[in-house]
Amino acid sequence: MLDDEKLAYEDEWDTGDLECGELLLPLRRRVEALKAGGVIRLITRNASAAIDLRAWCRVTGHRMLKMDPPDFYIQRKED
Fold it and tell me: What is the per-residue pLDDT across 20-40, written as a single tens digit (0 to 9) for each?
């Protein structure tokens, strides 16, 4: 994961208090809409997001660039 303060991103989504089960499918669609290597900034106040999003990235092959709750930066995998 990167420690840089500011990361460039192509999309931003504030999910509020959505549970991870409710946000993973829409997140998948948003990440798939990015070009390969594109970054989404996800804002979530869900307490388990750090664990769940890290696992989701591992399973899908996307890269968690930075976790600084409530901000998460996820990079779409290369095709």
Answer: 889 999 999 999 999 999 999
